[in-house]
Amino acid sequence: MTHGNPKADEPAALLERRGAVALITLNRPRALNAVNAALSAAVGEALEEVAADPELHVIVVTGAGRAFCAGMDLKAAAADEPVMAPGHEDWGFAGLVNHYIAKPVIAAVNGFALGGGTEIALACDLVVADENAQFGLPEVRRGLFAAAGGVLRLPRQLPKKIALEMALTGRPLDAAEAARWGLVNRVAPAGTSVEAALELAETVAEGAPLALQATKRLIHRSDAFGSDWEPAMWDENEREWQAVFASEDAREGALAFAEKRAPAWRGR
Ligand SMILES: CCCCCCCCCCCCC[C@H](O)CC(=O)SCCNC(=O)CCNC(=O)[C@H](O)C(C)(C)COP(=O)(O)OP(=O)(O)OC[C@H]1O[C@@H](n2cnc3c(N)ncnc32)[C@H](O)[C@@H]1OP(=O)(O)O
């Protein structure tokens, strides 16, 4: 993966295959991977390619250079240029990852994750952060608010007073504090967050694809059910269980255990 300073005509996102793991790199390092229409389109295309590839079961997203993502391209916004590709305006990566990508997604936060960068991390299922990474929602200081999932997801993932302090003051959290509040699963030594995220992705990829996707869907859906969540949630749980239990992989998982061998998932 190129972490260097790519030439101007380099794609705004890179997709690499590592076995069953897809590595997507936001690739505008000169602008700290700020999101403009080109990057939005490139990341969207990469995610859609991965979603359609049955050989890819887990996704890692990271940034080229010293930032993960510095959020919306403020210079594009100042120049009245589009900051999201056509068709991505309403949900963008943040929405896409959580509600539109069934496969587990891991953020390898290799540096600054500000504004939309923190929102991408919030939308991912797991987060591995470089010990020098920074998370923050400075939007109110830019005349905006964290509309790409920030204000909606932060209070569900951190204590509400911490979420309010971050979103109302723009105060950044370093990786250690983010991990303390549960925004980060693992803190990796400086410069090793991508390697650590790929290792975690390989562990996740040992699970059966359909079971991983049902697990992700139901855990995220459990947020959506209110206090009377029991009946509706158990109905949805039962539908997912019937589909997964009837899959070839459910039979393969049991057979592999009985025959003391590693399972060979088929994703069906
Ligand atoms: C379907 C797929 C979609 C794909 C992804 C979509 C995800 C959703 C993203 C959209 C989100 C919209 C909603 C969001 O909530 C709104 C925002 O994100 S508002 C922006 C919030 N971000 C910021 O305010 C951070 C701004 N940057 C900084 O504060 C600093 O740059 C820094 C990060 C603290 C680093 O400081 P320094 O180390 O001093 O470095 P520089 O400041 O010199 O930066 C280097 C270089 O990068 C340029 N740059 C940095 N950030 C941005 C930016 N956000 N937009 C444009 N350009 C940026 C900076 O200008 C420098 O350029 P140079 O001057 O060298 O030409």
Automatic annotation (TrEMBL):
<dbReference type="InterPro" id="IPR018376">
    <property type="entry name" value="Enoyl-CoA_hyd/isom_CS"/>
</dbReference>
<dbReference type="Pfam" id="PF00378">
    <property type="entry name" value="ECH_1"/>
</dbReference>
<dbReference type="InterPro" id="IPR029045">
    <property type="entry name" value="ClpP/crotonase-like_dom_sf"/>
</dbReference>
<dbReference type="InterPro" id="IPR001753">
    <property type="entry name" value="Enoyl-CoA_hydra/iso"/>
</dbReference>
<protein>
    <submittedName>
        <fullName>Crotonase/enoyl-CoA hydratase family protein</fullName>
    </submittedName>
</protein>
<dbReference type="InterPro" id="IPR014748">
    <property type="entry name" value="Enoyl-CoA_hydra_C"/>
</dbReference>
<comment type="similarity">
    <text>Belongs to the enoyl-CoA hydratase/isomerase family.</text>
</comment>
